[in-house]
Design a protein that fits this description.
Helix content is 65%, strand content 0%. It is an all-alpha fold. Helix 7 crosses helix 9. The termini are far apart.
Length: 162
């Protein structure tokens, strides 16, 4: 009896995490043409399904293979390591890129209070106000600041809690 071994064809690296990525991309119709804001809206859903740094790495590699741009990948799978940007550095970065979606992403990040206490809401509002001031000092167009960096609901909540 002669045994014949079948040669395996090598498939691209896939695992359950890239399957999860496929589900998210298909469910929300996210494509390489999607802007970072659209992708960022689903980052939490994807992030809760990825248990560790290895899973994040696999998903980022899969997105690279699918020709997503670096800023799109960062919006969908944000780096969880200790990158603490100061408000001033965030504003300088936004002024340098000139991209309003960067301003909006940083505003969303700064606007989320740590918890729902009055102190946290006031702190979030204070950070947003400081961010707007730093954007202006960095030379960002005032119209862009008014449109993308100001969240009246946060300011209103902060004023009501004091």
């Amino acid at each position: 009896m002669t045994m014949i071994t079948a040669q395996k064809t090598r498939n691209p690296k896939t695992n359950s995490f890239t399957s999860i990525l496929d589900q998210i991309l298909n469910k929300y119709n996210l494509l390489t043409e999607s802007n970072p804001l659209q992708l960022h809206a689903h980052a939490n859903k994807l992030g809760t399904m990825l248990p560790d740094w290895k899973a994040h790495k696999d998903v980022k590699e899969a997105l690279h293979r699918r020709l997503f741009k670096e800023n799109q990948i960062e919006a969908l799978v944000p780096d969880k390591r200790g990158k603490k940007l100061t408000v001033k550095k965030r504003a300088q970065y936004c002024a340098k890129t000139g991209d309003v979606s960067d301003i909006w992403l940083h505003v969303l990040n700064l606007a989320v209070p740590k918890n729902n206490t009055d102190k946290a809401i006031v702190a979030a509002s204070s950070c947003l106000l400081q961010f707007c001031k730093e954007l202006a000092e960095a030379g960002v167009d005032p119209e862009q600041i008014n449109t993308y960096a100001k969240l009246p609901d946060i300011t209103r909540a902060s004023n009501q809690s004091t």
